[in-house]
Specification:
With 855 residues, the chain is an alpha/beta fold. It is 26% helix and 22% strand. The strands form eight sheets. Strands 16-17-20-21-22-25-26-27 form an eight-stranded parallel barrel, surrounded by five helices. The protein starts with a helix and ends with a strand. InterPro entries: Beta_hexosaminidase_sua/sub, CBM2/CBM3_carb-bd_dom_sf, CBM2_carb-bd_dom_sf, CHB/HEX_N_dom, CHB_C_dom, GH, Glyco_hydro_20_cat, Hex-like_dom2.
Length: 855
């Protein structure tokens, strides 16, 4: 019996059970607590956790007739559940808890503890079950959210240490204090005047006085950029400046065309005027962004009649031509207005590619004319009894199909608006259509379409865009727990579908007047076992001599897709796997760069350099082999990774812990050099690099650029998005734009470390005292992460420091939470007892509390 069939049969059995009368229990009175009991349980890679259900009402919770659903990123082990109930997986990360024979219910005022064992381990609250909801058997279509739910914090080593060799405990204020001691605040006169760091600059002693009366004079090639600048200055000045032809000696802003490389520019600010020169509109645009970062941050808080801009001369050009940010809107959705705001942020820091991940297992987010099921079914999530009206809940999205995070998509009009907005900001938007794996939203939607058309007697049309072989008995389980999420690449209808979607995407870009050079066709995480028992595959093998095994289907598929893309003027782009070939080494599976595709101009995102997994050099091997590589390394550039090991610090951590310093100290051409910790956060054993392939000079020519990424499994809403990407994105912007720093190429380790410490101090000062205060107001303000203060007891007093200078530190000594009215920390605190400290930004928003006890 296949896993897919088993999951479906379990659901049918639940729905077919005898209907019970309404239980008369109000779910609001069911209090649920979840806790991690012990990691490394019984000395294995597993953990013990527990639900505690408390009936706070006056009516008994019933013995039967109910099912509790929840999403969980871990896999409970069968037969380990206590309390008279059982935990069962349905599909993906959706589980259900059901009563067993003899379950006694929960009397009013009583509690029930349910323990179970699951694979792997947990550290922070985002590991916990999420999106809990109850379904009564007499109303199977209605999911009722559990609103009284709490995840209890882990406080003991057995709860937060993953295994015996886990060398780091939870990050404490004392640990942060020691870490923060490495940096110092750099005086203003030693800071680069614009951000990211330009190639060269010179500061003067005067200022230019900007008022609404200062006109903008632009050469003909830069009229669009002049209009953009006028709009930005209107925000600052409360009035849009005039766009004027050549004038006399009056102060003005000049946008001037001059022979220079495409993205290069010069910026000159003098008391008599501002001149930005470039050879292209892109260069002028980046000069405008530098001018904006030269403006004092406080000027963005409210319209000003006068803005004083310091005298500066800048010569600048980017290090990499490809400076990308990836956002996944499938696992959880982000509305159009947040995408537009993200584009403003990217533009300010000169990032020029938005990698837009709009399709995946958990959502199809782009309207495609002629295939309404993709968004009507694949663009919505909620409780379902059939799986055909919409997708099931994932990542805590809950039972409501109108939920803000699980459901949503961009209409053609929305997407065209996004494209126009991006194009105005010289940002290329690359859509990603996940194939052949990570495709469940599309697979399910096209199944529903086929079923409808078959019922209408339209058999040929029903099969036209079908993505799975109805007779395929293959068994597989994806990394995310799906049993039915892969397109069957032996079916001609898969290519008909991809061509249809590709053509509609091309039409969108044409209508928007936006450039489209490529579509990203995915390619990652196709699970073992797929296609093994498919009649369609067997038929293809009989007809196609190049396909002898299911491994060969990979090359067959991407050969056809790349040919289709090339025929439409697009180059092939995907995840690293599309450039790999499976072979044998000493009788064991072994992957090498695929020689068949290297001459076809493939570009690949390489994410897997997880330190300690064995593929640390994969990006360099592919670049050395001739593939165009975008460094998308999980070790430094996955912004969804948690900042550090702490219960209340959100995010995954399977590939690394990633704070703002990780993208900053990333060395694109030699990230082995200063790698400091493994994927678990432990001090790095550098022997893992022995025998690894380093980047050749030829390979360097194939490093296209770098990309920061945010996967949204743990991100619900714009506030959490901004918390996760900022200030990390500023480290990405610096490394993508600025020249190779001296510390990255210095061969003497001690000298390199000293140079790095100075560079970090300068960077942290600039972002803490200038860029984050600017982002308090820019584009409406961003909810960036405010680092928790470091604190320790030294010589009987509490001393406090911070990772990024510029925040106001406030404290209390009476056990209450610090507020904007609490005392400001200016000197060591002599008070005894519990001291609480918070960092506040310019808008009075605070980060999390650091607590230290002074005995």
């Amino acid at each position: 019996m296949t896993r897919t069939f088993l999951a479906a049969w379990l659901l049918v059995l639940a729905l077919a059970a005898p209907t019970l009368a309404a239980p008369g229990f109000d779910v609001r009175y069911l209090q649920v607590r979840w806790e991690i009991v012990e990691n490394n349980y019984q000395g294995r890679t597993q953990f013990l956790s527990a639900f505690t259900f408390t009936n706070t009402g006056k009516t008994d919770f019933p013995k039967e007739g109910w099912t509790l659903y929840f999403n969980f990123i871990r896999t409970p082990l069968a037969g380990t559940t206590t309390g008279g109930v059982n935990v069962e997986r349905l599909n993906g990360d959706l589980f259900r808890l059901v009563p067993q024979a003899g379950f006694a219910g929960i009397p009013a005022g009583k509690s029930l503890r349910v323990e179970f064992i699951a694979r792997d381990w947990v550290i922070n609250y985002t590991d916990a079950p999420a999106g809990l909801y109850l379904v009564w058997q007499d109303a199977p279509a209605a999911g009722i959210p559990i609103t009284n739910y709490t995840v209890l914090p882990s406080t003991e080593p057995r709860q937060y240490n993953r295994f015996d060799g886990d060398k780091i405990g939870l990050i404490t204020p004392q640990v942060l204090y020691e870490q923060n001691k490495r940096s110092r605040e750099v005086p203003v006169q030693q800071q680069a005047p614009v951000f990211p760091t330009p190639v060269s600059y010179r500061s003067g002693n005067s200022t230019f006085i900007l008022t609404p009366q200062v006109p903008i004079q632009a050469d003909a090639a830069f009229k669009r950029e002049a209009n953009y600048l006028a709009g930005e200055l209107a925000t600052l000045l409360g009035k849009r400046p005039l766009l004027a032809a050549a004038t006399g000696g009056a102060a003005k802003i000049i946008l001037q065309q001059k022979a220079m490389p495409e993205e290069a520019y010069s910026l000159e600010v003098k008391p008599e005027g501002i001149t930005i020169a470039a050879g292209s509109a892109k260069g002028i645009f980046y000069g405008i962004q530098s001018l904006k970062t030269l403006i004092p941050p406080a000027a963005w808080a409210a319209p000003n009649s006068v803005v004083r801009i310091p005298e500066t001369t800048v010569q600048d050009a980017p290090r990499f031509g490809y400076r990308a940010f990836f956002i996944d809107v499938c696992r959880n959705f982000q509305e159009k207005k947040e995408i537009l705001k993200l584009l403003d942020l990217m533009a300010l820091y000169k990032l020029n590619v938005l990698h837009f991940h709009v399709t995946d297992d958990e959502g199809w987010r782009l309207e495609i004319p002629g295939l309404p099921e993709l968004t009507e079914i694949g663009g919505r999530r909620g409780h379902t009894t059939t799986g055909e009206d919409h997708l099931q809940p994932s990542f805590g999205s809950g039972p409501d199909v109108n939920g803000r995070f699980g459901s949503g998509y961009y209409t053609r009009g929305d997407y065209i608006e996004i494209l126009k907005y991006a194009t105005e900001r010289h940002i290329e938007v690359i859509p990603e259509l996940e194939t052949p794996g990570h495709a469940r939203a599309a697979v399910v939607a096209m199944n529903v379409r086929a079923k409808r058309l078959q019922q209408e007697g339209k058999r040929e049309e029903a099969a036209r865009y079908l993505l799975r072989d109805p007779e395929d008995a293959s068994e597989y389980l994806s990394v995310q727990g799906w049993t039915d999420n892969v397109m069957n690449v032996a079916m001609p209808s898969v290519y008909t579908f991809l061509e249809k979607v590709t053509d509609e995407v091309i039409a969108l870009y044409k209508e928007a007047g936006a450039p489209l050079k490529t579509i990203h066709y995915g390619g990652d995480e196709v699970p073992a076992g797929v296609w093994e028992r498919s009649p369609a595959v067997q038929k293809l093998m009989a007809a196609e001599p190049t396909v002898k095994t299911t491994n060969d289907l990979w090359y067959y598929f991407y050969g056809k897709v790349s040919q289709m893309a090339a025929g439409k003027g697009l180059y092939m782009y995907g995840w690293e796997e599309i450039a790999m070939r499976k072979t044998l080494l000493d009788g064991k599976p072994h992957y090498i760069p695929n020689p068949d595709f290297v001459q076809k101009g493939f570009q690949v995102d390489v994410w897997n350099n997880a330190l300690g997994w064995g593929s640390e050099d994969l990006a360099y091997r592919l670049a050395n082999a001739g593939y165009k590589v975008v460094l998308s390394c999980v070790s430094h550039l996955y912004f969804d990774m948690a900042v550090y090991k702490a219960f209340d610090e959100p995010g995954y951590y399977w590939g690394a812990f990633v704070d703002v310093d990780k993208p900053f100290y990333f060395i694109p051409y030699d990230y082995f050099k200063n790698a400091k910790e493994d994927r678990l956060g432990n001090p790095l054993d550098r022997s893992i690099f022995i025998g690894k392939e380093r980047l050749t000079d030829y390979g360097k020519s194939n490093i296209v650029g770098i990309q920061g990424l945010i996967w949204e499994e743990t991100v619900r809403g714009p506030e959490q998005l901004e918390y996760k990407i900022l200030p990390k994105m500023l480290g990405l912007a610096e490394r993508a734009w600025a020249s190779d720093p001296a510390w990255a190429t210095e061969k003497d380790p001690a000298r390199s470390e000293a140079l790095y410490t100075d560079a970090w101090s300068s960077f942290s000062t600039i972002i803490g005292t200038r860029e984050l205060p600017r982002l308090d107001y820019y584009a409406g303000g961003f909810q960036y992460r405010i680092p928790s203060p470091g604190a320790a007891v030294v010589d009987g007093k509490v001393v406090v420091n911070q990772q990024l200078p510029g925040f106001t530190l406030r404290y209390t000594t009476d056990g209450t939470e610090p507020t904007v009215k609490s005392p400001v920390y200016t000197a060591p605190i002599a008070a005894k007892g519990e001291i609480k400290i918070k960092a506040f930004n310019t808008r009075g928003r605070a980060g999390r509390t650091s607590t230290v006890r002074n005995p």
